[in-house]
Amino acid sequence: MTWSVASASLPESARPSSIPTGLDLVIIDLPDQERPGAAKSAFEILAPGGIMIVPEPEVPTGDVGTPSADEEPTEAQRKVISFNEWIDFIKSVSDNHTLAFVELTGGTLAVVRRAT
Questions:
Q1: How far apart are CA 36 and CA 31, in angstroms?
Q2: Is residue 8 part of a domain?
Q3: What is the pTM of this model?
Q4: 62-96 in b/e burial notation, b at 16+ Cβ within 10 A?
Q5: Three-state DSSP class for 88?
Q6: Is residue 43 in a domain?
Q7: Does residue 32 have a pLDDT over 70?
Q8: How many domains would you assign to the chain?
Q9: Percentage above 90 pLDDT, the chain
Q10: 3-state class (DSSP) for residue 41
Q11: What is the extent of the structural domain holding 74?
Q12: From CA 108, how far away is CA 87, in angstroms rounded?
């Protein structure tokens, strides 16, 4: 209660989140480019022993080049950037947590179980 009273004078955007921590199950169903960021955020509020289920982003193929500093990346380049962020997330959790990948028609489902 004290925290709520203390933050009552803050603007709405600065108030603490009402999302509970320690969730037992998180299912992420977002566009490919939003999944890596969502998975990182969701993993932070996943309870020990909790499970996160998320479709793996589509694997990019072909040479898409590298965007120059003064240009916006193309759609294909954004796809590669997003997939690399996904791989970085998977690497960051793979040492201490349980991962499983299930092949489905049209893609792969990743299941992450947070260590207890």
A1: 10
A2: no
A3: 0.75
A4: eebeeeeeeeeeeeebbbbbbbebbeebbeebeee
A5: helix
A6: yes
A7: yes
A8: 1
A9: 54
A10: helix
A11: 20-113
A12: 14
